[in-house]
Amino acid sequence: MDGEPASKPESSGAILSIALEEGFSEDLVVISLDGVEVYRQPRVATRLQIGLADSFELQTAASSVTVAVALPDKGLATELELEVAGVLYLGISISPSGELVHRRSTIPFGYV
Questions:
Q1: Measured in Å, how far apart are the chain's first and last C-alpha atoms?
Q2: What is 98-110 written as a DSSP string?
Q3: pLDDT for the residue 112
Q4: In the chain, N or C terminus with fewer CB closer than 10 Å?
């Protein structure tokens, strides 16, 4: 019938929500998902008022993914193996000691 939702919703896979959080200062950031570059931005900088530099979402049909994060100009890189079901929130920061650190959650992070 016209105007009615389909009886079975299409499966769109899982969503990985990535937030670049603390410690970014005009940095080139490159992020890959399973070996495919999905994000490349120069001059990423944390907005100190809210502790967030940038964020974006990716859809994936895979339940297990590899996320690679690199800041080539600073010589920083890390690879994360993640299980994604539904929505997974991944926060990435540069620690005060200069290392890439991350946190993950099934509920959204709050930024004020």
A1: 45
A2: S-EEEEEESSPPP
A3: 66
A4: N
Is 59 among the domain residues? Answer: yes
Could you give the count of Cα atoms lying within 13 Å of 11 in the half-sphere of its Cβ?
8
User: Counting every residue, how long is the chain?
Assistant: 112
**Does residue 9 fall inside a structural domain?**
no
Neighbours of 30 (CB within 10 A): 16
pTM, rounded to two decimals: 0.86
What's the domain count of the chain?
Answer: 1
Q: Which two tokens stand for residue 69?
A: 């994060």
Q: What are phi and psi of 31, to 5 degrees?
A: -125, 135
- Distance in angstroms (rounded) separating the CA atoms of residues 83 and 67: 11
CB atoms < 10 A from the CB of 32, how many?
A: 16
* H or E stretch covering 23: none
Q: Which tokens hold the place of 19? A: 């937030």
What is the spatial distance between Cα 49 and Cα 58, in angstroms, rounded to a whole number? 26
Q: Which residue range is the domain that position 101 belongs to?
A: 14-105
Residue 4 domain flag: no
